[in-house]
Each structure stands twice: as C-alpha cells, then as structure tokens.
Design brief:
heterotrimer, A mainly alpha, B mainly alpha, C alpha/beta, A: mainly alpha, 15 helices, globular, C: alpha/beta, Rossmann fold, six-stranded mixed β-sheet, four-stranded antiparallel β-sheet, 10 strands, 41% helix, 22% strand
C-alpha cells in the first residue's frame, strides 16, 4: 500500500539507472543509514560492538569482495582467507614500519597490496575455468598461509609467531589497539564499508560490471563482442582482492587486534565467506550484507538458544551448529539459489501489487 | 648402491604409498564426477565420516571388526540414499557450480554429524592390518617400507581393478557411463537417474570407507583426515576429472612429488612444504596443460 | 535533456548516417575476402581450401548441408578459430592472426546458432554490453559514476534505446533475458550485435526454430539493418526461401569445400548444389 511507484516519473537516463530508482527505497536506505550513523554508535556497548557490529561490517566488506569475483565475474575462489591474511599482514607491516602513518592510509594500502597479490593468483584464470580454478585458488590458500607462518619477517620475528596490532589513529582518533574506544572503531569501519559499497555498486552498474557479468554468463560470446578476457578477469580479481584486503586489515587491526595465521585465516574462513554470499545472493551488493548478517548472527543466536535455552553442552551445540550451517546452505541452494537478496526482491514485487496476486 | 640413493629410493617409495592413498580418495571424486557431473567436495569428509562410523560402531556397540565393516558399508549406502533423496533430487538441472556448493554444505553436515554421533576425539583404528617396518635387503642398504602402506597399495589395486570391471563390463556400469555423457538422453532410454545416483554415491561411499580405514590405520581417525583428503583435489587436476587411470597416476605423482619436495626442499625453507606443494604443482601443471594429463584437448564451440 | 528528446536526437543522427552509408555505393568494394583457407582439428578437416569474398554493403549468404563447415567459417572470420592455411583480407589489407576481441574491435559482430546471451542480465544490459568497445571512461570515473562516466553511460544508453526501438523490444527492456521466449532472445542477440555498430555482421542461423511470423519479422530487421545502417551482412541459413529472398550473393559449402558461388538464381540452378542437397553419393 505504501510501496507504490505510481506517480514517480523519470525524465532522464540518470534517474532511471540510479541505485535506488524508487523513492520508498531511497527513504528506506536513508533511515537505515541514519540509524547506523546516529543511533547505533551512541547506544552500543563494548560487547555489542565487538561481538556484533564490527564483525558484521567487516564480514560484509569481505563478502562484497568475494561477491565481485564469484557473483559478478563467475570465477570461483576458495582462497578468500588467504587474501584476508595478505591484507592483515600488509597492514601489520605498514603499521610497524611507518608508525606515523594514518590508519586509513594503511587500510587503503593494504587493499592495494592485496589487489596485486590477488591479480597474481588470478593469472591462471586466463587458462583455466570452473572447478579447476577453484582448486588453483586452494594453492593460494595453503601457500600464503604457509608463507606468513614460515617467513619471520612477516611477523617481525616475534617469538609467538602472532601479530599484534599497535595503537594507531585515523584522523587523530585512535582506532586500533586494545584501548581504542568502540565508538571510533565502529565509525571507522562503518565509513569504509559504506564508501566501499558505494564504489563497488558504481563499478558493477557501469561498463566494467557489465563486462564482468558477460564473462560470467557466457565467456566465449563476451569475447566475440569485444570483451578482453585478460583485463576483465584480472580487474575482477584486483577489485575483489582490494576489498578483501581492506577487510583483512580491519579484521586484524580493528576487530581482532591479534592474529595467528592458521587459526584466523584457515580454510574454514574461506568457506564461511563463500557461504555468506551464497546465502545472501550471488551477484548482489545487498546480498553480501544480508549474507554476512545472517551467517554471523545466526550461529550466535543458535548457540545462545542451545546452551542457555536448552542447556546443551557447548561441544554439542557446536556440532549441531555445523550441521545446521551445512544444511542451511543446501536448503538455500534448493529453495532459492539466488539467496536472501532475491527473497527481498520478491517481497518487494509482491508489495508493489498488493493486495492483488498478479 | 650408495646410501644417498637408497635414501632417495625410500623417499620415493614412501611417496608412492602416500600417493596410493590420495588416489583412493581421488577415485571417489572421479566416480561421482563421471556419473553425475558433480564435483563432490564432500568426498574427503565422507572418508572421515566412514572411518568414524567404522570405529564408532565398534566402540559404542562393541561390534567386532568383521561385523563393523558391513555395518559401515550399510551406513554409507544409507547415506547415499539420503543424499539422493534430500539433496540431489532437488537440484537436477542446476548449474554445476550450485551442485558444487551444495556438496560443500554436505561436507559440513557430515562433519558435524560424524562428530555428533561418534565424538570428536582422535580415535585409534586397528583392524589387524600389519603394522611397522619391513626390511628388504637391497644390496647393502636397509630399505625401510611400512607394511601397512604395502597392504594399502595392494587393496587399492584390487579396488581399482574391480571398479574398472564394474564400469566396463556390467549393465549398471554402462548405464553409469550413459548418465555421465548426457542426463536427458540417458533418461529417455529408460535409465533411472535416481537409482544410478544412489548406486554411484554408494560406490563412492564404499571407496571412501576403504580410503578412510587406510588413512585411519596410519594416523588415527581425526578431523585432519578430511584435510588430507583435500589433497585429492590437485590429484584430480593432474589426472583430469573423468579419468580413473588419471586419478591413480596423478595420485602417485603428487605423493612422490611432495615427499621428495619435503625431504629435499623443506629444510631450506623451514619445512611443512607438504601443506601446499601439491596445490602449487597442480597449478603450475594447469598452466601448461589445462585439460590434465589424460583429459582430451578441449575444442570450444559456439 | 529529456528522455524523448534524447531518443529523437539519436534517431535523426542515425538517418543521416544511413543516407551517406555505403549501401548506395555502386562498384563493389571489398569488405572481407578469404583465400585458400583450410582448417582442421587434429585429423578432421572442417574447411578445405575455401576462397570467397564479401562486398561492402551486400547481404552474403553461406549455405550448405549440416556439417558443411559454415559455422567454422564464421568462427574463422571472427578470429575464434585460426586456419592452418590461407589468408584473410579485411577491408583490403591482409589480416594477421588475431583474437576474437580484436576482430570485434576491428568491426565484426556476430550472433550465434545456439543463443549465446548473457542469461543473468536484463535485455538492456545485454545490449549495453555490446557498446563496451565504444566506452572509454577510465576506472576512476567508473568508481564514482559521475562526470565522464555518467555522460558516457547516458549517451550510449540513448544509442541502445534507438536499437531497442528499431527491433521492437521495448517491452522486455528490463526483463532478464534467460526467461524470454526463443524468438525474442534471438532478437536481443541481434540487438547486442547491432549495438557494436559493426561494419560486418555475421548471423549464424538467425531464423532457426522460428515460426513463419517470427521469420518474417527477422527478415525485415535484417533487410532494414542492411539498408538503414549500411551494414554488410553474412548469414548462414537453412530456409532456402529466406536465403533466396534476402541475399545478394550466395556461397555454397559441402563437406568443407566450396561447391557454388554467385547470385541466388545462379546457385539454385547449379547441378552440384542440387546434388549436395538431394544427397547424391560422393
């Protein structure tokens, strides 16, 4: 009833291809952003910030990165966690080598470094496709983790092999280290994620995005109408790794504060993020956020319910959680392979014509 | 024969034996890929699950090993039936990538299920396979070979021969190959896809059981088993997804390659080369020959 | 600028194009020529020593029984296959071995026997993808989607809307192409190829699997494309009626060899061609 686009005329192409062409959607996202910027930061405590909002934002950013590669360009990757590791270690080295560097610069540069590494591992995609490529990305996963584990330079020769985030500021506000207030951390991540989402959306709705999708849907036809496979695939790898690398820098620098390679960047992380974009919706920006929210919040809620509600043991609830997670993936693939984003879209379609069925 | 050469030989043999194990896991992948075009990521976890079940029924119900084996086979067949019922049936005609991701989901379910049913502690698996070293005198060098690995190699060869006969000579085998080529065409000549899938997943499950028991006897039944099984992926790349001989040769190459790399390259770079060597080898190989060792050259058509 | 004004602007632009287009040229000017081209896969010979040419502005049909090597010929022309022997002349010059996207850049567009649309995208995006080669704005502007990137996007959108109007597919503009009926998919594919503003348009069985009405529509679009934009067209088609009506000249292939070449009437009377179609033993 409230969701009608009647009376909203578009008189030029720019309006027609806006990110939110329908006025109600625009109001909706504004309200959401207003809450994110003006309500959450001033009501959030340490627990909610660290356990819910920070990981949510960071995972959304990383999922968005993977979605560029898998959802938009159709190149499967099982090596996400390795690229997160590249971002994390890049930020660690930058922070410790240049103590005066603003953390926002550190995050950007970590993204760039990861983009270079990602493109390097993307090179095989020019010759190999599909599952073969998926296995090739496993090479990145195992090799990079091994490398940061073995080469002491990466963790500054520390005895534990761990990396710890020193205290750094972004525009004078402390955002890393154990003493940084959650408020600043939250704002910092929020701003980066919102900007990244905007830029990514801009890329995917323009020429580059269309070429990615062309390669995804029918690579031969794409090439025959003049899409260069080399630049197109590599640009997808680069943009994807850039986002994942920034996510990795935030993941380690702002959220975790300390990381140990095999635990923080194991192959399970790669799968978790792959699951996020499957559940959220391949090839949508919104889906990355929905998927990250779902797969981060669901296990927490589930665990709370199982352990506190039903009094099961933690181990038991963990096993159940793994089963449920796998089951959910299968469920989503069967019922709605396009994920939560499509469900949301269908809901909107239904709302538009409500109360009529067609 | 010099000591150095003997040592090298020993490394190669131990690599070959590990390769046989990889080949066993890879075989399961190939079976399912051939018959349904599904890249079954869960094959590794199926090994773990099968081995856990095998040990579990012995521990929990006190069954002797000779009874536990058919019990575990039964569970694997039941599992195949369930997978077909609950998952595959609903995903007919979906993109291969969707099916692939579904098998990742399956891997999680099986992992959780295995832990839930049989507990997640490391289990010893002993079914009286010969253990320990065997010494063969080759010239003046004591060549050290694990008895278990020899047994594994023998069992694997028997299994492969049996599968080859099954695929080439039986009616079911022919149907399997027909399904592999074209689902719809196979349906149209009266082959039941559902039955075929149950059969092929059962066979893959049994192969997984054998592989799981072998790995389990070697290093205990634990979660890392499914990670070892991930090594079967580069094996597949080397051998090509649809070739049984490819899986075997690929397995041997990877097994030998990573052992030799670990022993001769490891000390210079800080060890644990085994973690990634197989993948990098496969990656390098792909760049030269994207279709694998035994795959046919792909002619793209529009 | 309003939506309407934008479109009509582009329309007038197009008509002025057509008036000066090469369709009106009298003496045949060479668009493309293949000379002594042979192509084989392993031991299988797909094309054996074929030579023919395509004049600027004409509609050239390639016909022949199934497996005669027609599609392989198109694949050679747009650089997807590389012949083992022979030379290809493109607009008078010898063409070096090139990749498909380079051929596309030089002005060759193509539709496919089995529809090869980008299934996950809308009709509009499919056609817009065809404009990719003409879009130049750099990565930075793409990221912020303002300034040159936005201008360019709108400019090309206007062009695309013109093609959408021309092919009468306005109503499916925002529909995902995967869900469209076959006939419309073929039309979207033609739109995508036209969006490239090619010099040479290759159509691989544009009317396969269509009913009479759809065939008539498609024929009309092909003729109009040829006349309005002056696009040179090479088409493969099995419907002889359509081929004879549409094309200026016909080349006939059988078993990878050329067995006839000339205006439709001449080819129709050629004994070898008749044999090939009626199936005389070789």
């Amino acid at each position: 009833m409230f969701y009608r686009e009647t009376g909203q005329f578009k008189t030029n192409y720019s309006d027609d291809r806006a990110i939110f062409p329908i006025a109600q959607d625009r109001y909706g996202i504004m309200i959401l952003l207003a809450i994110a910027f003006f309500v959450i930061p001033f009501t959030v405590d340490d627990y909610w910030g660290n356990a819910i909002f920070l990981p949510l934002l960071i995972y959304a950013l990383i999922a968005m990165g993977l979605n560029v590669l898998v959802g938009y360009c159709g190149q499967i990757s099982l090596g996400t966690a390795a690229f997160m590791a590249v971002g994390s270690y890049a930020s660690f080295k930058l922070m410790t080598s240049f103590p005066g560097l603003d953390f926002s610069i550190v995050v950007l540069m970590s993204g760039l470094i990861t983009a270079v590494v990602g493109s390097l591992f993307g090179l095989p995609s020019l010759r190999i496709k599909g599952f073969y490529l998926a296995v090739a990305t496993l090479a990145a996963q195992f090799f990079i983790i091994w490398l940061v584990n073995k080469v002491e330079w990466f963790y500054n020769y520390s005895a534990t092999g761990q990396i710890n985030a020193p205290e750094r500021t972004a525009l004078m506000f402390p955002v890393t280290g154990p003493n940084a207030p959650i408020l600043y951390k939250y704002f910092f991540c929020l701003i980066i994620v919102v900007l990244a989402a905007l830029v990514t959306k801009n890329i995917v709705r323009g020429r580059i995005g269309r070429q990615w999708m062309a390669i995804r849907d029918m690579d031969i036809a794409a090439e025959l109408i003049g899409v260069r496979p080399l630049t197109t695939k590599l640009s997808a790898f680069a943009v994807s790794s850039f986002l994942i690398g920034m996510g990795g820098a935030l993941y380690f620098g702002v959220w975790l504060g300390a990381a140990e390679p095999t635990e923080a960047f194991g192959i399970d992380q790669s799968f978790l993020i792959l699951f996020m974009i499957i559940v959220g919706g391949l090839g949508t920006i919104l889906g990355s956020f929905l998927g990250a929210a779902f797969l981060w919040l669901f296990p927490i809620a589930f665990k709370n319910f199982m352990v506190d509600g039903l009094g099961l043991s933690t181990a038991m609830s963990e096993h159940l959680q793994i089963i449920l997670m796998g089951g959910l993936i299968i469920f989503f693939l069967i019922v709605e392979p396009h994920g939560l984003a499509r469900l949301w879209q269908i809901t909107k379609e239904k709302l538009r014509i409500w109360p009529f069925p067609h | 024969m010099s000591v150095e050469f003997g040592f090298f030989l020993e490394t190669v043999i131990s690599g070959l034996m590990a390769g046989v194990m990889y080949a066993l896991v890879a075989l399961g992948f190939v079976l399912i890929f051939k018959a349904s075009g599904i890249f079954n990521f869960a094959q590794g976890v199926m090994c773990l699950f099968a081995a856990l079940t095998f040990v579990g029924v012995q521990e929990k119900f006190g069954l002797p090993a000779w009874l536990a084996l058919p019990a575990a086979v039964g569970v694997m067949i039941l599992l195949a039936w369930l997978i077909e019922r609950l998952v595959l049936r609903h995903l007919v005609n979906q993109d291969p990538i969707i099916l692939f991701m579904a098998t990742i989901g399956l891997a999680y379910v099986l992992e959780g299920l295995g832990d839930l049913m049989w507990g997640s502690d490391v289990k010893l698996l002993d079914i009286g396979l010969p253990q320990g070293a065997s010494d063969y005198m080759l010239d003046n060098f004591n060549l050290y070979v694990e008895k278990l690995e020899v047994v594994a190699a023998v069992i694997a060869s028997i299994l492969v021969a049996a599968l080859a006969v099954f695929f080439q000579k039986t009616r079911v085998g022919r149907a399997l190959r027909a399904v592999a080529d074209d689902h719809q065409a196979a349906l149209s000549v009266g082959i039941s896809l559902n039955t075929i899938w149950v059969i092929v997943w059962s066979v893959a499950g049994i192969v997984a059981l054998v592989a799981g028991i072998m790995w389990g006897s070697k290093s205990g039944v634990q979660f890392s088993l499914s990670l070892i099984a991930l090594k079967a992926l580069p094996v597949l790349i080397l051998g090509g997804f649809t070739s049984i001989p490819g899986a075997i040769v690929g397995g041997l190459i990877i097994g030998v390659g990573e052992k030799v790399a670990e022993v001769y390259m490891g000390p210079f770079v800080g060890g644990a080369v085994e973690n990634w060597f197989a993948y990098m080898l496969a990656l390098a190989f792909l760049l030269v020959r994207p279709q694998g060792l035994f795959g046919e050259k792909i002619i793209e058509r529009v | 600028m309003t939506f309407q004004a934008n479109v009509s602007d582009a329309m007038s632009d197009a008509t002025s194009n057509a008036a000066t287009g090469p369709a009106s040229a009298k003496e045949p000017e060479m668009m493309l020529a293949v000379e002594h081209v042979s192509l084989s896969f392993g031991g299988v010979k797909a094309i054996t020593d074929i030579s023919f040419d395509i004049h600027k502005g004409e509609i050239r049909a390639i016909i022949g029984p199934n497996g005669a090597g027609k599609t392989s010929m198109l694949n050679v022309i747009n650089g997807f296959y590389h012949p083992q022997e022979g030379t290809i002349y493109w607009q008078g010059k010898v063409r070096r071995r090139m990749k498909p996207h380079e051929a596309a850049k030089s002005g060759i567009a193509r539709t496919f026997q089995n529809v090869a649309l980008f299934k996950g995208m809308s009709t509009l995006d499919n056609v817009m993808t065809g404009r990719g080669l003409k879009m130049k704005s750099n990565f930075f502007w793409q990221c912020i989607h303002k300034g040159p990137a936005l201008c360019e996007e709108n400019e090309h959108r206007a062009k695309v809307e013109e093609i959408i109007d021309f092919l009468e597919i306005q109503h499916i503009r925002n529909k995902p192409v995967g869900k469209l009926p076959y006939g419309l998919q073929k039309r979207v594919e033609l739109a995508r190829a036209l969006a490239m503003e090619p010099d040479l348009l290759l159509l691989d069985e544009p009317m396969a699997g269509m009913n009479l009405e759809e065939k008539e529509d498609m024929s009309r679009f092909i003729i109009e494309t040829n006349q309005r934009y002056g696009t040179t067209i090479a088409l493969i088609e099995h419907d002889m009626g359509v081929v004879m009506d549409l094309s200026d000249r016909v080349v006939v292939l059988d078993y990878g060899k050329k067995i006839g070449d000339g205006p439709p009437a001449e080819v129709q009377a050629n004994q070898e061609v008749i044999d090939a179609y009626l199936g005389v033993s070789h």
